[in-house]
Amino acid sequence: MTQKNTKIWREANTERVRASARKGVRKYTQKLKLKVVEHYSNATMECAGCGISDIRVLSIDHINGKGNLQRRKIGVRSGHMFWSWLIKNNFPPGYQVLCMNCQWIKRHTNNECNQKDNSVLDV
Ligand SMILES: [Zn+2]
After folding, report:
1. How many A from CA of 8 to the centre of ligand 1?
2. Nearest residue to 33 (alpha-carbon basis) of 84, 95, 98, 99
3. What pLDDT was estimated at residue 114?
4. Lower CB density within 10 Å: C or N end of the chain?
5. 14 CA distance to ligand 1 centroid (A)?
């Protein structure tokens, strides 16, 4: 297909192009997540708290808490931006894999939900 033909085809199939782009992004972010979870779970692909291995609920937890503040500091807003930041920075230490339940439990236990102290960052 010539470049001109490709352009015409893409214009005629915008919905298909968009859908496949979305699919591509999802696939790409899934890959990032798998890579990061694999590293921080020591390849067990499990939550460090309860051992659940459902990738859909697993996330990267900042061991010392203040994950949100740290993410703001490095300027990443969404999960996949954070995952690619971790990869680009050669998997910095201080993180673990937790499921959403264990994250909430940890936050509650450490009282991180009421944290108003934005000044101190121990990263
Ligand atoms: Zn868990």
Report:
1. 49
2. 84
3. 56
4. N
5. 41
Residue 65 burial (C-beta neighbours within 10 Å; 0-12, 13-18, 19+): middle
Q: Ligand 1 centre and the CA of 96: distance in Å? A: 11
* pLDDT value at residue 112: 65
Mean local confidence (pLDDT), 4-28: 91
How far is the centre of ligand 1, averaged over its atoms, from the C-alpha of 28 (Å)? 25
Residue 65: which of 42, 35, 95 has the closest Cα? 95
Distance CA 117, CA 8 (A): 55
Mean pLDDT, the chain, whole residue set: 87
Whole-number Å distance, alpha carbon 32 to ligand 1 midpoint, is 20
Q: Where are the domains of the chain?
A: 33-112
